[in-house]
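Minutes, structural biology subgroup

Action item carried over from last meeting: produce the structure token record for ZIP family metal transporter (Halosimplex pelagicum). EB confirmed the sequence was re-checked against the source entry. Recorded below for completeness.
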Amino acid sequence: MFPVVDSVGRGPAVVPGGAGFVLQSGASGLLANPWFYAAFSALSLLAGSAVGIWVRPARRWQAALLAVGGGSLVVSLAFELFEPAFRNIGEYPASGFFLCGILVFGTLDVLIDRWADDDTEENGAGLWASVTTDGIPENAAMGSLLAGNVSGALALLFGLAVTNGSQSMMSGTNMSENHGERRVMAVWVATAAVVSGSVIAGYRLLPPLPNYWIAAVRAFAAGAILASLAGEIYPDAYEEAGPYITLATAVGFLGTFLL
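Output recorded by EB:
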């Protein structure tokens, strides 16, 4: 076992090595098991892509769901990732790592957009690339939250599941119009494996680090999420659903805040 300080400074949490359970504030069992979070993250991508490929809901409903997830992520990046980092390592270091996340993933989104020419963007490959790259730090940060703030990890899981599920749905719909359905599904199976693996990596590798670097990773992940919201999620949602995404965003924000 190794002690870690939880993300809100409430003291040590006990992480049994290899058991996959966190005992903190009475939280244990399924909701503290990193494999549950990994499986749920993967399932959201697989379910979303399958619905997009074979059901193909109206694009405005897909966009509304995307905005719900975006509103949810605003709460999680502020209160579960950046605020604890801000308190633990100070305003300037936390802000610096936050801006690094913005710059790295904002630049990455720009490069993906340049790579994704009009045809590539239309067939969903650009959105798939964005989901894959952004999903790694987001899910690693969620895994790290299980070492001390299970309720925060649950709120972040909700936001990521809704957002990634709707992104994979939109991408699956577009990709399946230009590629074979089984081939597109296989691509999303591989992406789900990478994203779920990031949860386990975050849970296993981040808690043993000094508290400073745990906070740094979370602040960086908060910046990455905000870059994704500004550069990919809301532009895509507004393009398909227009001003209706305002209400959808409010639903996601309020639901996650209450959770």
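Discussion: Residues 1-26 have pLDDT under 50 and may be disordered.
Next step: EB to file the record with the rest of the batch.
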